[in-house]
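To close the chapter, one final illustration. This time we ask the reader to focus less on the individual chains and more on the assembly as a whole: which components sit near each other, and how the overall shape emerges from the parts.
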Amino acid sequence: MAKTDEYPVIWLQGAGCSGCSVSVLNTESPTIKNLLIDEVIPGKHISLKFHPTVMAGQGEAAIEAMEETHRKGGYLVVVEGAISKDSAYGAIGEEDGKPVSIFNRLASLAEKAIAVIALGTCASFGGIPAGSPNPSQCLSVSQALKSKNITTPVINVPGCAPHPDWFVGTVASILLLGLPKPEDLDDVGRPKAFYGKLIHENCPRRAYYDEKKFAKKLSEPGCLYELGCKGPVTYADCPLRLWNGGANWCVQSGGMCIGCVEPGFPDIVSPIYEKMIAEPAEKEV
Amino acid sequence: MGRIVIDPITRIEGHLKIEAVVENGVVKDARSSGTLFRGIELILRGRDPRDAQRITQRICGVCPTSHSTAATLNLDSAFGIANKIPDNGRILRNLILGAAHIADHILHFYHLAALDYVDVAKVANYEGNNLALKSIKSFIERGELAPFVPRYEGDYRLPEDVNLQAVAHYAEAFNMRRKAQEMLSIFGGKMPHNMTIVPGGVTEVPTVDKIASFLWRLNELRDFIDSVYIPDVLAVAGVYRDYFEIGQGCGNLLSYGSYELDGKEADLTKRARLFKQGVVSADLKLEKLDLTKITEEVKHSWYADGTSGRKPTEGKTEPQPAKEAAYSWVKSPRYDGKVYEVGPLARMVATYVSGNPMVKSLVDSTLAKFNASPAALFSVLGRHAARALGTKYIADSMPAWLLELKPGEPVYVEYELPEEAHGMGLVDAARGALGHWIEIKDRKIANYQCVVPSTWNASPRDDKGQPGPIEQAIMGTRIKDEANPVEIVRIVRSFDPCLACAIHLITPKGRSLGEFRVS
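The assembled structure is written out below.
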């Protein structure tokens, strides 16, 4: 049998909702079974050493699986959820009978990791728990690592939730080509392959905008800009990629874009159902 | 007697820790603690009330649809439009919620609970042609067994053929739950975090092609529920019959009911629903729900003592992480001062006791297979069976709703944002009774309180010292092998808690846990 290279992955959950995990379970091709069991790229297999929602083990053995991977090094860390600065607000597992804060777990794991994927908007930028007044003092993964002078590369894959393709594509790219080069990421650390263009640029309701045909109430056809759509300031490929196996996506369903992949979400897009103050800015292609 | 520590528990949603004391092989005491605080209720204050629907969904990525349902019912009532939602809007909301619950329950049984009963490692000996099993066999041969190992060893009892089939179904169920989320997105926009459920109705419109596309995904899921999911639950129950007696819990059940069958009744305690609302105890008598009897106690939670005993309408969230007597971020909701379990078991029993013919026949025929009385429902297997049968009840009700949709008719009604108002939204989420309460002042959120299912089930001791439902279900359980206390995790997971847990088992003479006392 040909040798398979194993790529160990440790998946941490901080201040989040597990929605990123659920979204990754929705991956279409490869399926989640392909990701867990099969060689996701020929000759390469992701070995999910720790994932709170999926793994069979629990207790000390689960923490030990994490620790053993940590000792060996050469693994990828995926973080879902924001990181509370205050250890009282979030802990996972124990050491010497004392809870270990998620912040400290992340710091020690990140030091020896090849890279950290900050999955979802909470991990990438703080997201919902960091919404004003940020009661649990949440940081993004980058902010948390920077505060401890840890320089391991961080790739932001935001979205509330992120599209499964954005995660799988980022991982596959690392397996095939290595870590992304600086020019592959935008100014907030997102892969340009997925976050390179405004929703507004490729929106199927764009023609309505150009003709100034605006929906006056929810559920109507027309551009949703006057009702608060944040597509004109949001960078993601949702209109082309579509969601849930192509079944639908936010603007198509009349639910509008709420800017969930952007730094500052949710405060920066609130009130969600009010028209934005600024006019949309076109980015050079 | 030995000291055992389990930390963390996996295959549940969120962050929860349970500590238990074992004496002579029996759990003498248990404590359940939520270990993560985000303060969503504090984040909501001062925001546009309409944004509550978007933000509260983010409480949970597994059950966001339930939160969006509770939030919109809450806002509908605050905006004075609870009885004005167009039928299309009401039905589409039901279909979206139904799709979410189907996805959730399949996920729970196969991907969260099943690995406590099913032995993936035995696939190493597989010689057949099932593609999923063959690929799992090569996975095992490569030697890196994460995430299926480590695990508790010792109590995998399924016969080889049943076990192999269950592993194949574990793989197939991934596709089925994904398909249910796709079905949800047809009317819900996307998942996780649907886009279309809003106060006033929904934003997506029904068309014939969407109805057909939804229907045929639903048909495939109904086949799976009938031919795979329910038979697998029964197969596990047949081999693990002792679990009809393990994890009984507090014996009191509470259901808010769910799936709106009547759009003209504004009062959520009077509205006709597919699942019945009410409280039931071991005597199997359904009593009408009296919302004024719900209080939240915080003596053992990290919140200011002055906020204890309040009704959700007057609820306050004042974190106090250093509080001495506390051991959880979860509050203790109580009904009439007593401990109540919520979830699929509660809503199925409420509906069963109300005399609903379909639910009665589903439950009675299942109990008959095991020569069991309804008392057996109060158990680990009772919860799994209620969840599976409840999934069928929902899925079988949905085709008729689809055909009631009227393409071209309204899905949404406009409203005025009130200067000041109060609202309430009640729904049975996948994991049980979910309530949202809002107070609006100056057209902004002045106060928002959520009492979520796992707050009921995973609650710590209340002000009177009564343990919460999961704590009670664990207490008294005999642990066969303290190195592999699988009984405890099976009990915890039967509640499908929406928190990530850490469970500690210690002996009374074990390590000190501060204020922890063994009675």
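Chain A has two domains: 5-193, 196-285. The two ends of chain A are 47 Å apart (CA to CA). With these observations in hand, you are ready for the problems at the end of the chapter.
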